[in-house]
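Subject: for your reference before the review

Hello V.,

The reviewers asked for a structural picture of the protein, and I figured it would be easier to keep everything in one thread rather than splitting it across files. Below is the amino acid sequence we used in the manuscript, unchanged from the supplementary table.
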Amino acid sequence: MSRPSILVIDQHAERRMAISRGLAELNFEVVPVADQREGLRYARVINPWVIVASTAILEPDPGANDASPNGDSSWTALLDFRQRASLLLIGAACPAPQAQQIALELAAINGRIIFFGGLPADKAHVSLNTNLIHYKQLEVTGTTRQSLSQYRRTLRLVACGRINIKDLISSRTALAEIQSALDNISQARSLKSAIYFE
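And here is what came back from the structure prediction:
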């Protein structure tokens, strides 16, 4: 049986590779790419089971000349590709209103959508096409915590080596240099940052 394929689209190389390694360790076939145009090319070829995309690709790149043959931007073409595929389960896990809006468009009939990423206070009111929920018979829920049983299962996966959490920590900074770590975090240059005491 072939492994499920996952397409990872993220412009940050370090984060892209960390996500890809983690998924590969869970026995997925992972294809990491850096931008929308490359993502569209691979999406058409491999028809991925899941597309993991950074928030940045939710908006077209105004400086990119990457129109598809029918004149669409690569993000629009990629979105059209996923609309045709129709997804049964979508997790919107980033602080972007566009992700919640697009989730309704991508969902298949009788699909499930989970809003996991909270939004900034000034973007918390999102315009959603509730007709899509109605006519597609979608189940839309939210979650912000995990149960004790989920925590225990996660710890077992870490303990047995199925999840390598070392790859999730992209920078380690001494407490005296904490400002540099905060700068990296604010610029999304680190997946996870660890602060240690000397």
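For the response letter, the relevant points are probably these. The first strand starts at residue 5 and ends at 9. The chain has three domains: 1-84, 86-144, 160-198.

Happy to draft the paragraph if you're swamped.

O.
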